[in-house]
């Protein structure tokens, strides 16, 4: 059974009721969820499943390897029984960090117009690898990010057909992660007036919500790869 992905339409939704549809792969599958599974460079959500006085810690969320379209919630201890109705609760602080960092990477793409050759979004840092041999200016990037955050650009998603994507191949910036095919439509993320590209991740609704950012590291990973690592200004990043 496929899992209804509530997080695709509302990244601010942190809880829902769901029914356990299966056990295996280290956890349980649900008929619906607010938990984002590892993918597209973004880490999976953690949180809890709750039924009455029982609580199961969700240590990670992954796409099922056995059932296409299902999402596995990895849990500590004996998993809840199939058929049990549970309340799904996302770790709110972790989700918000993912939302802020993921939208920040879209701002970085707007400032550095090069193909992306790698991505990692966690709750402590965000990293993008760009396919270029051009040097990067740390101060200039930080100033550009601060400007885009302060300008408070609305952030929204919409769906386009696969045919529309094929007609606009320039929308795809990533060399390593391609939009999923076969569903007939593709989710795109728009930072108004700044960036537009396919993305299935969770995001803030306005760039002002990102807050102050710092570039914690710029590395030359190869002759044609430059890595930029972002952190929040109040933390040291990674």
From TrEMBL:
Record flagged with keyword Zinc: yes
SMART domains: tRNA_SAD (SM00863)
Transmembrane feature ranges: none
Endpoints of the signal sequence: none
Major location (coarse): cytoplasm
Gene3D superfamilies: 2.40.30.130, Threonyl-trna Synthetase, Chain A, domain 2
Cofactor: Zn(2+)
Localization in the cell: Cytoplasm
InterPro entries: Ala-tRNA-synth_IIc_core, Ala-tRNA-synth_IIc_N, Alanyl-tRNA_Editing_Enzymes, Thr/Ala-tRNA-synth_IIc_edit, Transl_B-barrel_sf, tRNA_SAD
Alphabetic keyword roster: Metal-binding, Zinc
UniProt-listed Pfam families: tRNA-synt_2c (PF01411), tRNA_SAD (PF07973)
All copies of domain Alanyl-transfer RNA synthetases family profile, residue ranges: 1-228
Protein name per UniProt: Alanine--tRNA ligase
Organism whose genome encodes this protein: Pelomonas baiyunensis
Highest classification ranks of the organism: Bacteria, Pseudomonadati, Pseudomonadota, Betaproteobacteria, Burkholderiales
């Amino acid at each position: 059974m496929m899992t209804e992905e509530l997080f695709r339409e509302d990244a601010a939704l942190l809880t829902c009721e769901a029914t356990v549809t299966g056990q295996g792969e280290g956890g349980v599958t649900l008929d619906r969820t607010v938990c984002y599974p590892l993918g597209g460079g973004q880490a999976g959500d953690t949180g809890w499943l709750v039924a009455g006085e029982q609580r199961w810690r969700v240590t990670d969320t992954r796409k099922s390897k056995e059932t296409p379209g299902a999402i596995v919630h990895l849990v500590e201890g004996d998993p809840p029984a199939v058929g049990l109705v549970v309340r799904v609760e996302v770790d709110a602080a972790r989700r918000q960090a993912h939302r802020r960092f993921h939208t920040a990477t879209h701002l970085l793409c707007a400032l550095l117009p090069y193909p992306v050759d790698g991505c990692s979004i966690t709750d402590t840092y965000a990293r993008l690898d760009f396919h270029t041999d051009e040097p990067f200016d740390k101060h200039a990037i930080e100033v550009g990010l601060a400007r885009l955050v302060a300008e408070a650009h609305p952030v929204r998603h919409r769906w386009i057909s696969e045919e529309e994507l094929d007609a606009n191949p320039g929308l795809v910036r990533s060399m390593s992660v391609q939009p999923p095919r076969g569903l007939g439509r593709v989710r795109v993320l728009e930072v108004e007036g700044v960036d537009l590209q396919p993305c299935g991740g969770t995001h803030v609704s306005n760039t002002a919500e990102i807050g102050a950012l710092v570039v914690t590291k710029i590395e030359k990973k190869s002759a044609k790869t430059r890595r930029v690592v972002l952190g929040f200004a109040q933390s040291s990043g990674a």
